[in-house]
Amino acid sequence: MKPVILDVDTGLDDACALLLAARHPDLDLKAVTCVGGNVELDQVVINTLTVLEAADRTDVPVARGAALPLLQPTRSAPHVHGVDGLGDLDWPRSTRTTDARHAVELLRDVLLTAAGTGELITLIPLAPLTNIALLLRTYPEAAAGLREIVFMGGAAGIGNATASAEFNIWTDPEAAAIVLNAAGELDIPLTMYGLDVFYDVEITLEEARELIATGEKSAVLAGSLIEIRCQLYGAEAATIGDGSAVCAVIEPDWLTTKAFPLRIELSGNWSRGRTIVDTRNWPGAMTSDPHGAAPTVVQVATAVDGRRYADLWLRTVR
Ligand code: RIB
Ligand code: CA
């Protein structure tokens, strides 16, 4: 089994990711950490505990992390995820409480244990990178327990929160820049699962309704998450979004990536929070660039076998 930790801002598609990670037999879900993003932190925590309970995984520790981005006010996305972040489905809330530790401390403890045993962890941030920046700057020694970081965020192409920027990076650009710097310094392999592939893993409304018809708790929730997304957009299919980044950890061979230097735009009138993917490939591009070398080179997801990931998700949540 591959040990993983998810860092989430549980909206609809983080919930798709949690259900998959909680139930897939090849993953050992060690912990889940929460950060403000799609909804405020208190609601992220409620949603995360609720989804894990639906998946019968009340054994997984869940910790509260940063409520706010490092520098700017928080920005939620009720137009995408509903007011409660879970599509206002009125799903019964979990009554479980969180781990007593702050998310950063829980991450540190699990990673240091992993460093000791040699069972290195794949960290999967699906949210603004605030917790991860705080972790890597506060406890850099915890990086010894990391196998890699596979994060949902950014894009080489279009944005979603703005024309330039993807929501997770746009919400906390400074945190994203810190994570890139720290990854370069600490030699942490990074994969960016961004918007270039994010929308390519779709579940049809018919498949969602088949899940609901099983009557099995976690399948009903999974189907309802897709159904509500279809209703929100008047569509016949919806992406599992963050869920597909977890698919990429389970089956990396169905994802195409290319190594590119990466930077985060921290200013700009219209481009703050953009991921600058340096796709130049002519000789001398790096040496003649007045900006110098980027802090790290990242595996950027460029193509995905969407149908195979969709089937993987369906099989697992059913
Ligand atoms: O921008 C993609 C992001 O939007 C994901 O992390 C997801 O949570 C959604 O809110
Ligand atoms: Ca998310």
Biggest beta sheet attributes: 9 strands, mixed
Q: What shape does the CA trace take?
A: globular
Helix content: 40-55%
User: What structural category characterises the helix and strand content?
Assistant: alpha/beta
What's the assembly state of these chains? Answer: single chain
Which stretches are low in confidence, meaning pLDDT under 50 for 5 or more residues running?
none
* Run of helices and strands: EHEHEHHEHEHHEHEHHEHEEHEH
CATH superfamily: Ribonucleoside hydrolase-like
Q: Roughly how many Å is the radius of gyration? A: 18 Å
Q: What is the percentage of strand-forming residues?
A: 15-25%
Number of strands: 11
The molecules bound to the chains, other than polymers, are: alpha-D-ribofuranose, calcium ion
Q: Treating each run of at least 4 consecutive H or I residues as one helix, how many helices?
A: 13
| Physical arrangement of strands within the biggest beta sheet | 3-2-1-4-5-6-11-9-10
CATH topology: Inosine-uridine Nucleoside N-ribohydrolase, Chain A
The top-level CATH class is Alpha Beta
Distance between the termini: 20 Å
In CATH terms, what is the architecture? Alpha-Beta Complex
Please tell me the total number of domains: 1
Q: How would you state the average pLDDT, rounded?
A: 96
